[in-house]
Amino acid sequence: MPGVAVIIPVFNRQELLVRAIASVRRQTMGDFECIVVDDSSDVPVTLPDVDRRFSLIRFERRRGVSAARNRGVAASSASLIAFLDSDDEWLPHKLERQCTFIDVNPQYDILQSREVWIRRGIRVNPPMTHKKHAGDLFAESLKRCMITPSSVMLRRTLFESVGGFNESIPACEDYDLWLRITARRHVGLVDEHLLVRYGGHDDQLSAEFTAPDRFRVRSMLQLIQYQHLDEYRQELVRQQIGTKAAILAHGYRKRGNHAAARQYFALAGHYGNS
Questions:
Q1: Burial class (CB in 10 A: 0-12, 13-18, 19+), 167
Q2: Owning domain of residue 223
Q3: 98 half-sphere exposure, CB direction, 13 A CA radius
Q4: Residues 25 and 75 in one domain
Q5: Which class for 189: exposed (0-12), middle (13-18), buried (19 or more C-beta within 10 A)?
Q6: In this structure, are residues 120 and 200 in contact, taking their beta carbons and an 8 Å threshold?
Q7: Number of domains making up the chain
Q8: Which residues fall within 8 angstroms of residue 186, CB to CB, at 6 or more apart?
Q9: What would the pLDDT profile of 84-110 be if each residue is shown by its tens digit?
């Protein structure tokens, strides 16, 4: 059984996929399986000339990145899982450093690393609000996504216990998963830059949807309905629902969508913001 399952979802990114796979092949730790899940690309993606550790699954119809990641995990067998987006790449010691960390620190079921940001071909510094640290990330994760999928390694048991990615949410699916995880677990950090994270291109999932906070509000509503949160965490969630609902309401009213504005004003009023 391999030590780590690497899951790469992809849609219409053949050239970028080649770069991502090359970064997996360059890993100093070779005890992995890599499963690429093609989310019904317009032209089916193909794997470069790789060894038996790599396999390809193709959806006949587009199902979204959450379904692709979940399918990859289901097809894998390793006890540790690492996700890699098709437009990102790992530095060579990524898997080795994280496997060593989790062996030495068994109290962590999930960890990430620091990352290099490239925006439109230029290296930039991440804002201070996104500075990574270890520990309890729940409160910060309510405000913004504090965990990068491509930097993560987590135990299969944790992923399965929280139900994997929510396939009913078309965007902010990582925000949704990290909330369910950080409500239960602290997050470890390998204090090294082990990921190169690319952004600013037109086909990013975040560019497909307007008002992404509506998906975050949906996630938080489900969180307080179905998860057993202590009173402190429940209050944090309620405050953030009110804050984000108010922002959405004003945005929809400005754009002339009065029905949606009324819906979110009502929600903001219920949770204490307007």
A1: middle
A2: 213-270
A3: 35
A4: yes
A5: middle
A6: yes
A7: 2
A8: 107, 108, 134, 135, 136, 137
A9: 999 999 999 999 999 999 999 999 999
